[in-house]
Design a protein that fits this description.
- By secondary structure, the chain is an alpha/beta fold.
- The chain has a single domain, classed as 3-Layer(aba) Sandwich (Rossmann fold).
- It is built from 9 helices and 7 strands.
- A 7-stranded parallel β-sheet has the order 3-2-1-4-5-6-7, with helices on both faces.
- The protein starts with 7 loop residues before the first strand and ends in a 14-residue tail after the last strand.
């Protein structure tokens, strides 16, 4: 595993799913981790696993004042910031565009994209000082689309485009910006999505089949790639939209993936 020894990582939505896997992997790689999440009980459980040298911060990343307080708390605790991982996200509802309500649309964009606006606004000065990096958790659907999931697909397509724009804007400061693109990964969010499908009982087989490697993974496969992307081993990578997808996007006739 790539080394993150003595690095300071701030991650949103880090108390469950892919975020939790990444937070644990960052700590294992030697980083000190500040985890922001709006689930207090999940944060407590995660901090117990991480250890008291790390930091948990209760807050909602779609709200600017919460993010500002979280970044300030991270800097107060650790004195600097090397890595920001924009991981927080939601996938519901699973609907085509014309069935999506305005409130559902706004919530998806507020959580999945506006959160990146806030973390960048409040962390950029600190990242300039360390020539740090930003990682965005995106999705393969932002590249290939997905049936009956219009709002979510739109946010992830936006995140991929935003990642490239940020990479260009912040390269003069030595700041790298990349995105990681899972296909299906077994998380609480994916299980919620599964219940919204016409035939939930068939979803596990479907998710195994859409991956060329033949199975739907757990979050550790994303975490391993995330550690690489934020480490010095990836020091000449920026603006990269990295698939960690088991080949879900390959070949003719394959079904669309998350």
């Amino acid at each position: 595993m790539s080394s993150l020894q003595n690095k300071i990582v701030f991650i949103t939505g880090g108390a469950s799913g892919i975020g939790m896997s990444c937070a644990l992997a960052y700590a294992q790689a030697g980083a000190q981790v500040a985890v922001m999440d709006r689930d207090a009980s999940a944060l407590d459980l995660l901090l117990h696993q991480l250890g008291e040298t790390h930091l948990s911060i209760l807050g909602d990343a779609q709200y600017g004042p919460d993010v500002q307080k979280a970044i300030d708390a991270t800097l107060d605790r650790f004195g600097r910031l090397d890595i920001v991982h924009n991981n927080v996200g939601m996938s519901s509802p699973s609907k085509p565009l014309h069935e999506t309500t305005e409130d559902e649309w706004d919530a998806l964009f507020s959580i999945n994209l506006k959160s990146v606006f806030w973390t960048t606004r409040y962390s950029l000065d600190a990242l300039k000082q360390t020539k740090g990096c930003i990682l965005n958790t995106s999705s393969m659907v932002g590249e290939i689309g997905q049936l009956n999931h219009a709002g979510y697909v739109a946010t992830k397509g936006g995140m991929n485009a935003l990642t490239k724009a940020m990479a260009l804007d912040y390269a003069p400061f030595g700041i790298r910006v990349n995105a990681i693109c899972p296909a299906g990964v077994w998380t609480p969010m994916l299980r919620t999505w599964a219940t919204q499908q016409p035939n939930p009982a068939t979803i596990e087989t479907y998710l195994n089949d859409i991956h060329t490697l033949g199975y739907c993974p757990e979050g550790d496969v994303i975490a391993d790639a995330a550690v690489f992307l934020v480490s010095d081993a990836a020091r000449f990578m920026t603006g990269c939209i990295l698939p960690v997808s088991g080949g879900a996007e390959l070949g003719y006739g394959r079904k669309s993936a998350l």
